[in-house]
Amino acid sequence: MEAIVDGKTIQLSEAGWIENLDEWSAALAAEIAQNEKIVELTEEHWDVIRLAREYFTEYGAVCEPRAFSKLMKKQYGKDRSDQKYLYSLFPTGLIKCANKIAGLPRPKGCS
To answer: Which CATH class is domain 2-101?
Structure first.
């Protein structure tokens, strides 16, 4: 599978995960979001994407959902931190959908 962004071909896994993390861009995120049935990435989507990427950059690992909810609560408040809120933005969830769009590696056990 591949995505063509700004004239460049970027390799994705069969499930749509980026193969080379260094090739991630906002334009690619929008392309992957389309594949995940998200028509438009709003500022709320970007808040989640940025936080997921910051966590990965700092710790070298994808954040677990419970820990991520705590980070969201600390940064954006209770209304924007629960699983219901995250699923409203990313229908297949934080791990499978948000991290994929954020250009992070696929966690073990995630299809």
So the answer is: mainly alpha
Catalytic residue among 23, 35, 71, 110: 110
User: Has residue 111 got a pLDDT over 60?
Assistant: no
Q: Which residues contact 95 (CB under 8 A, 6 or more apart)?
A: 62, 65, 107, 110
**Rg, C-alpha atoms of the chain:** 13
For the chain, the structural domain boundaries read 2-101
CA distance 87 to 14: 23
Q: Residue 110 — very low, low, confident or very high, per pLDDT cuts 50/70/90?
A: low
Residue 33 tokens, joined: 């979001």
Q: pLDDT per residue over 13-49, tens digit each?
A: 998 999 999 999 999 999 999 999 999 999 999 999 9
Q: Is 63 a catalytic residue?
A: no
Backbone angles phi, psi at 23, to 5 degrees: -90, 0
Tell me which H or E stretch contains 10: strand 8-11
Q: Which residue has the tokens 């591949």?
A: 2
